[in-house]
Write a structure and sequence with these properties.
Elements (H helix, E strand, L loop, with lengths): L6 H29 L3 H29 L18 H29 L3 H30 L4 E9 L6 E6 L24
Antiparallel strand pairs: 1-2
Helix pairs in contact: 1-2, 1-3, 2-4, 3-4
The structure holds fe (ii) ion (2 copies).
Amino acid sequence: MDFTQTRTYFNLARAFAGECQAGMRYQLIAREATSAGLAALADALRTIAKNETNHARVFFETLVKQAGSRDNILVEAGYPFHTGTIAESLLFAAEDEKSEHENIYPGFARTAREEGLGEIGRIFDEVAKVEKNHEIVFRYLHEAVRDGSLYTAEHPVIWICGECGFMHTSKEAWKVCPLCGAKQGEVDLHLPYKGI
Ligand SMILES: [Fe+2]
Ligand SMILES: [Fe+2]
């Protein structure tokens, strides 16, 4: 079988491009968050951006391991170019993650198995699991930024200053750190992750 004639070869190239772009889009939201004084949000976004960059790396390495060095791979694919407020961008990100883990990667995994490329199918499945958690985190962040509840909780929780480590248990984080004077945006977030 000539790997470069499989649909999976092209799907790996599409997935690589998609992950690179997702990583860049999240860097752009992180930049906005930094400008808005939301340093901890920016950190969380950069962590997810790093995840996407590494998904891109895995897809790239998987492709060239099978196909070797390629001059040009032509693919037909569409990619989102959304813009908006930070809250809106976070919702777009959640929707993009949803379509990745519900449709795109399960489809790519199925195709890989049909083509006898089960190991590549497994990689698409594993990445889809991560994207599912990314959707959960983005949806939470979208609602929290939209509602101004990033630093409030229903029950008392431990808030930690990302700058000096000052800790306090309460329903709402301080506006200015009583120890180092850092703004609220530096306080570590409480992100929801679900085990799969
Ligand atoms: Fe990803
Ligand atoms: Fe993701």
